[in-house]
Amino acid sequence: MQNKLSFHQSSVSLEIIGLPDYSNNENKDQISIISQWKLTIIDKPLIEGKIEHLGPIMNAFYIYSNLLIKNKIPLYESKLIDIKAENLNLHNIVLKSSKPNIKPLILKIGNSLLSDTINCFDQLNESPKVRIKNTYDINNIPKNLRFELNNKVRFFSFFMPPFIAICSLILFSSSFIYFYNPVENIEKKELINPK
Fold this sequence. Notes:
41% of the residues lie in helices and 24% in strands. By secondary structure, the protein is of the alpha+beta class.
């Protein structure tokens, strides 16, 4: 008996089929050994494959969308999948089969379908019922983008602790404003040193 889990977002659905890893005492509803997956995009041919195809395809979508967000040249090419922008609203996807003598599958999707597909991948990554290895492989990220990601991590790790410390100091010191009343101090001085 294989388990099936589906992840849906508007016009896209992702189905994961597999078994739990009983050697790790997993729940019978869990999927750790993925045997097959199916990606259904409305009005497009069904995309399906094995676990070794899922990771690279997810990587491609994540890296491509990251390039789009950063206003870089949106182009991703690999042995299994190519994605490039035709214009601001249309994206060309070429899925290459790992089997010989099979023509590649060519899809054109808009921004909404791209977003829905990535949302389904996000649901899969966040699902507690599916164990999947980290698909965002650093070796597949283009070097210039990898450099930017590392710089952002270094920037935040360097500047965030002092920033948090300054904010907490300002918040702590501003709380004393509510306890300090200059009118009361003047009255106290007049009581101690009457004219």
